[in-house]
Amino acid sequence: MPSADHDLGPQNLRSPAQTVTREPTDQSPEHAEPSRFLPHVQGLRAIAVLCVVLYHFWPGRVTGGYIGVDVFFVISGFLITSHLMRELTATGTVRLGQFWARRARRLLPASLLVLLFCAVVVMSPYLMPTSALPNEIREILASTFYVENWYLALNSADYLNHAGDPTTVQHYWSLSLEEQFYVMWPLIMLLAAWVAVKWLRGNRRRAVIVTLAVVSAASLAFCIVFTITDPAPAYFVTFGRMWQFGVGAMVALIPLLRVRNAVGSFVLGWGGILVLVFVTFTYDGQTPFPGYNAILPTLGAAAIIAASNADRWWYPTRILSIRPAQFVGDISYSLYLWHWPLIIIAPSVPFWGLTIYHRLALLALCFVLAWLTKRFVEDPVRSWKVLTSRPARVTLWTSLAAMIVVALVAGTAWLVNAPLYSQGSRDIAQLQQDPPECFGAASVLDPSCADADFGGTILPAPGFAGIDRPTDEQCFVQLTDSRPVSCEFGSDEPDAPRVALIGDSHAYQLLSTFQRMADQNGWHLVTWFKGACPWNTTPLATPGAFGAACTEWRDRVQSAIDDADLDAVFTAAIATTPYSSAGHPSSHDAAVAGYQGAWSTVLDRGIPVITVVDNPVWETDPNKCLRTRDAAECDALKADVLVADDPLRDAASGVDGVTLLDFTDVFCRAEVCEPVVGGANVYRDQDHLTVTFADTLAPWYTEAVETALARRVAP
């Protein structure tokens, strides 16, 4: 999160400052020593914010741009620690009220403005799906009171893999974490200084350095271990990030780490820049992060800060001081705040697309809004005499009042839309219980429905498709969870046919449909699901803990399958899963061999397998388009959204005992794929089917399973 503290920097930390015995009452004593603006740190801030923004605009190209946030943590640790140490050296203490009031004046105006904007946006069903309303409101409230990182951690949000439905304020996790740093860091330094005065002969600097070093070392160890064991929350947890602030703090507090030698500064500065460039374009969503992989960008940022010589124009300190870099650094805080909500909202705006030109225009708009916010919000409030000329508590109480106003607006957004949300939820339930004739897939697959015309009907409504998903989330494991969780549904009769449903989220999307099929046909349904981990013997190309967890889950599930008494197995998987090609001509061939290897474990026991060609995978949720345009305008080219060589199709080809279902003609016409088929809204997000639409395929799923069961019991 880019701090708004642009004018802070260490000054003469090598030498103790003259003690100030009397402080002015109208300003923070953090000015007890003069500060020096560091242009190259401002330029580093520009690099950091551009990494994050470009990563969010083009995640497939700037694959590791998320490291920009780590750079900001180092910068904040450097600036704030030097700031606090200067005051602590000069006065023997830190006036916490003044310190926190200054942070509030710098950070809250722009932050709360963007939160207020997001709260107003979620009131409109045209700009935000109504189904997203509860989560949007919860996260706006969490961001307003700076606990967004903990909210995401407790809900196991997967930031790097873009899992789930991100809200307009998800990026506030870093701002929340940094605000928590502002609360804890001065307290830690004050505690260290108190210990120094009481037991260490008053050597405050040494005590602070040792204390922060110990805290940072413990934080790094925690970060590495937690990233391995539970990576999703590890990304957001405060203590797992404190070491990055600590690295910046060490550069501020230890003079030897600030390199003034010309050659050393040149090598250190450019080396740090090359490290940041390297990780920005080589790290990606599959890189275990933060963990030990965060060490490189953290040290790279610290190296750039430490390079202090600016004698020659080609030195990084001078390059980072040029005017464009300084401008981007100046607006970095507001640019960070504005860019993400606009990215989330823009695809829902009428007549707005996702072409390169739309993205560039949106990026330019982000810069304009950032400059306007800096010019008319950040700067004026920072020096607003109504606050700066009064005690710190005035700023703090005013800040709390402003936060409450934002919370009330968010609450109003819920009150305005809650009836619509409740009605939409009831409509979905009723639709699934009593669908119209010839609805959904039947309009294509049932010859008697050839003349069915649903006009402009879209059920469930685009604003509610996101919640039309299976509800038995306890049956679905994700990320590094390798437990072979199994759920059972349907008939408990001893002679009931036992049908297994196995696979990744594209198998899990059929769960509710198969539950109803099991109840109606007297089957006993048993399930095994893991996100992004199909039933396949070929390892994923995904490195680290995630790939290892998938392999372990498969082994455990296979043991359970071997011990289970099954009559048929249904499996499905997303066609774009990355497989390791080791030992095979290509990853496609490896995937085909892996599916056939997994299926053989049941085919050899005489158990039939049913599988299905994967559905289209869209670039973005088509419901964003459906909320504002006619369905015909939301079609996508078949070549863009449908994998031509689905390995499931090739794996099933010619294999005795395997039934392949292919509903491509339901999803797509000759050249385009449609988001609405027979009045049914097909997708709840960019690649998962709504339960409503999956239910319309139930007769054909049932026929395939019943045929397989008949073959199983045949003499």
Summary, kept brief:
By secondary structure, the chain is mostly helical.
Explain what you see.
By secondary structure, this protein is mainly α. Helices cover 54% and strands 6% of the residues. It contains 28 helices and eleven strands. It has helices spanning 39-57, 67-91, 96-121, 133-144, 148-154, 172-199, 204-229, 231-234, 242-253, 262-282, 295-306, 316-319, 323-330, 332-345, 356-382, 385-388, 392-433, 442-445, 505-508, 511-521, 544-563, 587-603, 623-626, 638-641, 647-652, 664-667, 691-696, 698-713, and strands spanning 476-477, 486-490, 498-503, 524-530, 568-572, 609-612, 636-637, 658-661, 672-673, 676-677, 680-681. Strands 1, 2, 3, 4, 5, 6 and 8 form a seven-stranded mixed sheet that branches. Strands 7-9 form a two-stranded antiparallel sheet. It is globular, with a radius of gyration of 29 Å. The model is unreliable at 9-35 (pLDDT under 50).
What topology does this entry show?
Layout: H1 39-57, H2 67-91, H3 96-121, H4 133-144, H5 148-154, H6 172-199, H7 204-229, H8 231-234, H9 242-253, H10 262-282, H11 295-306, H12 316-319, H13 323-330, H14 332-345, H15 356-382, H16 385-388, H17 392-433, H18 442-445, E1 476-477, E2 486-490, E3 498-503, H19 505-508, H20 511-521, E4 524-530, H21 544-563, E5 568-572, H22 587-603, E6 609-612, H23 623-626, E7 636-637, H24 638-641, H25 647-652, E8 658-661, H26 664-667, E9 672-673, E10 676-677, E11 680-681, H27 691-696, H28 698-713
Parallel strand pairs: 1-4, 3-4, 3-5, 5-6, 6-8
Antiparallel strand pairs: 2-4, 7-9, 10-11
